[in-house]
Each structure stands twice: as structure tokens, then as C-alpha cells.
Task: inverse folding
């Protein structure tokens, strides 16, 4: 397929359809990944958390914990303990209380983490104080 041919296609949807058709004709398979499987960057997860935690001090404390625990990687897994996700829930399946998509959705992990910090410590800031004193929360 020539570059000039692709440039003449009017819309990206048409281009994708044309590429898929060409791939199918050539015997190649194109598979669609689930929408959430698209890599969620740490900055995207931070933006979600910032929307969910409008108080600057509480967001800062939550952010510090998550940075230490997972580096803002929603699929972070501790090879020793099996703790999982942004907030390193142990077991990770505990986060299912916040949503069935806990393995892939940073918003679900953030919601669960906030609920955990609020119920166990009173707030993310108090959880961060505990983390600083103990190296875990």
C-alpha cells in the first residue's frame, strides 16, 4: 500500500478500515485490545486521583504513598507478597469491593485506596504520617 494512497483517505476511521482490509487480504490478523488495556500512564492515574481528591494536602499525601508503593503503575505487583496496584492492596482482590474492574482501572484502585486510608487512618495525610514512621501503611 503506497503512502500516497493512504494520504488520500479522508478520515482516520476510513484509514483504519482500509488498513484492516489490507491486513485481512494479506492474511494478517488485527486484534482489538480492550479500551482500558491501553497503557495508563502514571500521569493519567495522577490526574484521575487529583479529580477524586480535590484537597491539595490530602492529594499530596495520597500521591506520596502511591509513588512509594507502586510508582503510579496500576498493574504493579510485589513479587514477594503479591500486593497489587497503585495502592498495593494485599490481596489485590480486596479492591473488588470498589469495582469489578479493579485489575485494570486506576479510578477503582484509587477509590479503594482512599476508602482504606480514610477508614483505617482517618485520611490520606494520616496514612502518610503512619507510612513515614513505619515504611508501610
Result:
Amino acid at each position: 500500500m503506497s503512502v500516497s494512497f493512504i494520504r488520500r483517505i479522508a478520515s482516520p476511521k476510513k484509514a483504519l478500515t482500509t488498513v484492516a482490509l489490507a491486513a485481512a487480504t494479506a492474511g494478517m490478523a488485527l486484534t482489538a485490545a480492550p479500551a482500558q488495556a491501553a497503557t495508563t500512564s502514571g500521569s493519567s492515574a495522577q490526574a484521575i486521583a487529583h479529580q477524586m481528591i480535590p484537597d491539595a494536602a490530602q492529594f499530596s499525601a495520597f500521591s506520596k504513598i502511591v509513588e512509594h508503593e507502586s510508582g503510579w503503575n496500576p498493574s504493579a505487583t510485589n513479587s514477594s507478597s503479591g500486593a497489587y496496584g497503585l495502592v498495593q492492596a494485599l490481596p489485590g482482590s480486596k479492591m473488588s469491593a470498589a469495582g469489578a474492574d479493579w485489575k485494570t482501572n486506576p479510578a477503582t484502585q484509587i477509590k479503594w485506596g482512599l476508602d482504606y486510608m480514610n477508614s483505617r487512618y482517618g485520611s490520606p495525610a494520616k496514612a502518610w504520617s503512619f507510612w513515614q514512621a513505619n515504611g508501610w501503611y
